[in-house]
Please model this.
Amino acid sequence: QVQLVESGGGLVQPGGSLRLSCAASGSIFRINTMNWYRQAPGKQRELVAGIARGGSTNYADSVKGRFTVSRDNAKGTVFLQTVFLQMNSLKPEDTAVYYCYADTTSAGYWGQGTQVTVSS
Model:
């Protein structure tokens, strides 16, 4: 079992920045990738960015150059435990609930989500 807790959402003006965090606990040694998804009202949940245990990253075209996914290397562990999503140059269309998702070989786990609202 893996538990995920997101934090860092909020209200920001267009052009502003936010940093989301996702902290994993439990069987973190099973996590292969950690991903950020988002879901806007009336829309399907979509993949925003992801990071693999080895450090490779991927991004949706809509956020490339504006968002950066990273991991916390301060603890010196090879496992994915805490990941971040730095969001810059935010646009109103980035407004959504952002979810963290951890993928293991046997199951996937979702966090509870954190609201990001971009509005003036």
